[in-house]
Amino acid sequence: MLTFAHSTYFHDLLESFSAGVVICNIRGLVYAANEAACRLLGVSRRELADPAGSAALIARADAPRQLARFLAAAIKHGQKPEPLSIAYAHPDGELRRYRLSGSLLLENEKIFGILIEITDVTEIYRLHERDRDRLLGVQAAQKERIKGLIRFSLAVAHQIRNPLMVIGGFTGRLMRGKGEGDPETETLSMILDGAKRLEAVVRAVSDYARREEPAMAPCDLAGLAERAFAEALAATGLVGRLETAGLDRSEGPAGSVWADAAMLTAILAALCANALEAAPGDGARVALACDRQGEHVTLTIADTGPGPADDVLPYAFDPFFTTKAVGVGMGLTIARRRAEEMGGALTLERGPDGGGLARLTLPGRK
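Above: the chain sequence. Below: its structure as tokens.
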């Protein structure tokens, strides 16, 4: 083999490779390399074959230990090394990215060396980095745009709220000064109702625009559910009952969920209010169930109403979308926002037995 290695044909064969090729013997000494390998490594053939320079070459890699194991796989253990990607500090001062692959050289079923192929993938890495930087730039611009919209929304809401308070306050004073049966009372009442409705819209926009940082901790699910349902009853003025069959009411981790207590209560209150308003007549029934899979929890809130229509479902979480004659249409929108801030998700669908079915998924404890 050594005679063949010194032949003109062998060297012409090495130079025909576009990738860098280095051939080492079983002691790790380089006895052949093509010009591409010397150019990629920034050394001459003589320097490459010098045992004293091997350590310096390995030290130029960002992962010298991995590179040493790559070489040792064949030289010491007789195994084909796994391909390896390295960053290489080229003597010209640039950082190059190389992909190394090795093949065992056999003669009479005995390993006499290793062929190392060096492929320059620097430009591929640069393309990935440019794409990454571009995407990060787009994401940063989008985040800044969203922040700007949030600041704008809060500023507009603040500017509207001030004159609304004046309108509502003076309208109320004028109404108190009117006697029973005064024809202006109805007009003033309409103005006051409009002001209250607009104030509810402003409050909803402020709540949605204001980002909350969740304080995640173990929460008593049964207690939060009862509190949320009471809030839903008070907000809607309806009558109903909450069913929590199978809900774990034990104390400690078994009866708790990992969430922000205030956020979870607000989400459940919005979902219960939506369920109460969807159910026909008084005495509406709202069923809350909990499904645990490991640390992950999925809460379902079902009602006995007709269920959301197919043409309504795609827009149920859109801001200001409502099917009620009087309503802001931000309850489900804010509920989904708070669920996502906790790392969860909120969906709405038709239940298998009719009615609406809201599904709140909460992540496990990290």
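The radius of gyration is 35 Å.
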